[in-house]
Amino acid sequence: MSHAGTRSQLIVDANSPQDSASQVSRATLGLREMLLCGELRPGQRIAEIPLSAKLGVSRTPLRLAFEKLKHEGLIKALPHSGFAATEFSITDIWDAIETRGILEGASARLAAERLKSPAQLEPLHKINHAMEEILTTDVEGFAHYLDLNEAFHVAIMELSNNQILRRALELVYKVPFASPSSRILMPKTFPGSTAILPVAQEHHRALLDAIEHREGARAESLGREHARLTRRNLEEALVDRNFLETIPGARLIKFRSA
Fold first, then answer.
1. Same domain, residue pair 73 and 98
2. What is the CATH number of the domain that holds 9?
3. In this structure, are residues 111 and 211 in contact, taking their beta carbons and an 8 Å threshold?
4. pLDDT averaged per 10 residues in sequence order, the chain, 258 residues
């Protein structure tokens, strides 16, 4: 193949649908991480050219990433042009957690009503057992606990067999501190945090029991109550503002509204 032919093929490959999708994905993940780590301050216009260079993507996939994160609520369009990081009030976060409870409650109810066989709950029992086996309170052990906790909630969402509900929950989960993996305090970090973990574990056991026995109303009530532990956890963190601001997403919170 000639040099011209080789170059033409490279151009085709670089502009293939797979490459474009990869660039959009890379831009979205990189931009979301920068937002949650506080590298992009709320209200300040995000400069496209330097950001494009930093993320290693062209401006077209970057703009698609902007639109995606705008839909998630992490950035907002400025009046004339461009985008800036969104600033969340404490009230916004409380509302997101409340909405999560409503949706997760509905998800648990549908899971109970649509369960076809107790065997469908085996993966959930295994996840819950693994969570209860984690006794360490170091960062690595707690990170594993959070991964399992998220998997537990996703598994219930799958059992609900409702794709619209799933999409709504996934959107709420993207609000800082609203997702099942956002328990930011390790046990023993603060006096009140040690009481939260046993309650969460009891909620999980009760949810599995309610779903297995097709008790939809009970499962819904438990799902809503369980989500409130996320608020309780954040309220503990608010006691020490210096600690909280080391956690991803905290710099998007407008604390003066607290």
1. no
2. 1.10.10.10
3. yes
4. 41 49 85 84 89 91 90 85 88 94 98 96 96 71 81 96 95 86 57 75 96 98 94 79 69 66
